[in-house]
Amino acid sequence: MSFSVDRIRHLYDFQSHYLDLEGQRYHYLDEGQGAPVVMVHGNPSWSFMYRELVRSLRRTCRVIAPDHMGCGLSDKPESSVYEYTLVRRADDLENLLDHLGVTSNITLVVHDWGGAVGMRFAARHPDRIARLVIFNSAAFLLPKAKNLHWSLLFCRNSRLAAFLILKFNAFARVATWMGCRSKRMPREIRRAYTGPYDSSRNRVATLAFVRDIPLSPSDPAYAPLEEVQEKLDRFQHTPMLICWGERDFAFDPDFLEEWVKRFPEAQVHRFPEAGHYVLEEVP
Questions:
Q1: pLDDT tens per residue, range 2-52
Q2: pLDDT tens across 87-136, in order?
C-alpha cells in the first residue's frame, strides 16, 4: 500500500502547497501570519518532524516548512532528472522564499542536512536573516581530527548499503530506531517518518543525501560547504538558539562544540538524554 498523508492527518493537519520547479512539485507548508519562521529538515526526515513547532508558532508567526525534493510529499525524480546536491537544494529553498515574497526578518530553523542547506541560503542573503535556531546539524566541514561515524561512512560508500537503502528503506528505518535514545519512537510516528519512502524509486534522495556528505575537495558538496563555513562569521551577532540532543550518534557533542566555538554568544540548551530527533524526545 502506497503512502497517503490522509493516514496521518490527525498528526499532520496542515494544508499542502506546491511550487513547480522545472516540472517537479516541491511541497511546503505555509501556516499562520506574522514574522516568517522557515524550517529546513534533513535526511531522512521531512516537514513532519516540525509538526508541533508549526502548530504552536502559526498562532503568531508565518511558518514555512518545505520538503526537499525527493523527500516527504515532494516529487521524487530520478537522479538523471534532478541533481541531488547541496547547491541545488539551497537554490530550491531560495526559489521558494522568493516565490512567497519572504525576503526579510527570517527566523531560520535547521536540523541535520538542513544546517548546510539553510545556512548556504543564509550566507548568500545574511540581510534576510534575523534569528537562527540550530538543532543537531552542521554548516561546516567535518571538524579537524573528527571521523565520520562508521554507519554514515558505510552508507555513503558501500554498494551493499545502497542496496539495503533502496530495497528495504534501511536508512530511514534505522534512523527512527537510533534517532531517539531516552525513549523509543512510537510505531505510528516511525511509520510517518518512513512512509514517504515506500518504494525503491522513492528512496533515491535518501541515498543521494548521504552520498553527498563531503569528505575531500573532490566531493561536489565540499567547496560549497567550505564557502558556507568561511561566511559563518557574518552571523556572529545574530541571535542564535542551539538545542542539542547529546546522544546523537551522527551529530555528536563535537559538532555542538564547533557551533559554540564559532558562536560564543549563542543561547545553548543541552539535552543529555536525547538523540538525533530531539524534537521527538523533548518537544
A1: 789 999 999 999 999 999 999 999 999 999 999 999 999 999 999 999 999
A2: 999 999 999 999 999 999 999 999 999 999 999 999 999 999 999 999 99
Return the sign of the alpha-carbon dihedral for residues 280, 47, 57, 131: positive
pTM score, whole prediction = 0.97
- Report how far residue 197's alpha carbon sits from residue 164's, in angstroms, rounded to the nearest whole number: 13
Nearest residue to 244 via CA among 112, 50, 68, 66: 112
- Cell 556528505 appears where? 213
Amino acid letter for position 171:
F
Q: What is d(CA 276, CA 135) in angstroms, rounded to the nearest whole number?
A: 9
